[in-house]
Amino acid sequence: MPPPFHAFSFQHLVTLGIGVLVLAGLLAAGRRGGISRHLAAGVLAFANLSAYPLGLAAWLALDVPQSLDNLVPLHLCDLAAIIAGFAMLTRRPLLCALTYFWGLAATSQALVTPAIAVGFPSAPYVMFFVQHFAVVGAALYLPIVDGWRPKQPLWKGPLEAYGWAFGYLLMVLCVNRLLGTNFGFACRPPDNPSLLDHLGAWPWYLVSGMGMALVLFFLLALPFRRRAAR
């Protein structure tokens, strides 16, 4: 059995540091242009689209029973990785918007308070951070390197991303009810400490969380305000 994971431990902080350095390198490569830009985009697309199958293989390799929560890609960050991978390949406006708003408002929080029980050097631990850093990397790559911008006027982008997030919440509430799962942590907070622990008891933390998501989405649109005015 792999060693347990502890948030803000030495291994967690080292992992965060390595991930930040790798993302900085990919963004720098993308900004250089030419073949470096294509390679950086390809790495992010591959990392996002391969995160689920490789993560599934990592969980199945553990000699312990697995729940549907670890086997089916219905957590928000699982869907965000798939969306981010196709956003890197197609540059579709909706996929880019969801990658940016979901990736920076939600997936980045999962890096700070990971919902994972096993630590390094287990394969699930490695794939957890690869997946979440890949989503955040794509969310940064699209505006910084590719020049993606949200819809105008600026309130449209946050509301569009919020509408899809609300639809996701309704969907996982129904799935959780049918299967007894906890996708999206819509039925209870994760076992590890997280922001949800400070947002009230169920179901009020869902209301608080959606309110916070809307605020974060609008804050993420603010960096584009000056460009929009010009």
Broad structural category = mainly alpha
How helix-rich are the residues, as a percent range?
Answer: 55-70%
Radius of gyration: 18 Å
Counting DSSP H or I runs of 4 or more residues, the number of helices is 9
Provide the residue-averaged pLDDT.
93
Order of helices and strands: HHHHHHHHH
Distance between the termini: 57 Å
Number of strands: 0
Classify the beta-strand content into a percent band: under 5%
Q: Unreliable segments (pLDDT under 50, ≥5 consecutive)?
A: none
Largest sheet: none
Total individual domains: 1
Shape label: globular
Written account of the structure:
The chain has 230 residues and is an all-alpha fold. The chain has helices at residues 10-32, 34-61, 68-71, 76-90, 93-112, 123-144, 156-179, 204-221, 225-229. Helix 1 runs parallel beside helix 6 (123-144), helix 5 crosses helix 7 (156-179) and helix 7 (156-179) packs antiparallel against helix 8 (204-221). The chain is globular and about 45 Å long. The termini are far apart.
Short description, anyone?
The protein is mainly alpha-helical and 230 residues long. 69% of the residues lie in helices and 0% in strands.
Q: What characteristics describe this protein?
A:
single chain; 230 residues; mainly alpha; 0% strand; globular
Helix-strand layout with pairing:
Elements: H1 10-32, H2 34-61, H3 68-71, H4 76-90, H5 93-112, H6 123-144, H7 156-179, H8 204-221, H9 225-229
Helix pairs in contact: 1-2, 1-6, 2-4, 2-6, 4-5, 4-6, 5-6, 5-7, 5-8, 7-8
